[in-house]
Design goal:
Layout: H1 2-16, E1 20-23, H2 25-29, H3 31-45, E2 55-58, H4 65-77
Parallel strand pairs: 1-2
Amino acid sequence: MGKSLAIAIANVIHLLGIRGVVIGGGLAQAWDVFIGPLREELTRRLTMAPAAEVRIVRAELGDDAGSLGAAYLASAELDLL
């Protein structure tokens, strides 16, 4: 799983030039299982950016992230912020 996810992340990094990835949802629950293999494979796959410059972090909001994001967007749209 970590290797496959690293391949996808490396492709997105090369395509968009991003330097940070937040992993959330169900994937974040298996963080300890895949993060080691993901980082190893990412180091092998990245050619356009050094792996040390790419941050891979676990989402902190858990299952509430979608609801909180929707509430934020709604309040921003209604100028409540």
